Amino acid sequence: MSTGPMETRDTAGSKETILIVDDHPVNVKLLEKILKSAGYGTLSAENGPDGRSLAALRLPDLILLDIMMPGESGFESCEKLKKDLRTAHIPIVFLSAKTDTESKVTGLRLGAVDYMTKPFDKTEVLARVGRHLETRDSYRSIIELQAAKLKQVHEAQQAILPRPVEFPDAVFGVSYTPIIEAGGDFYDVFPVGEGAFGYFAADFSGHDIRASYNTFALKALISQNTGPQIPPAETMQVINRVFTSLMKNGEHLTGVYARLDRRASELTVVNAGHPPVLYLTAGGEIRSLAAEGDILGVFDDV
Question: What is the rounded distance in angstroms from the CA atom of residue 145 to the CA atom of residue 269?
Answer without folding.
Answer: 42
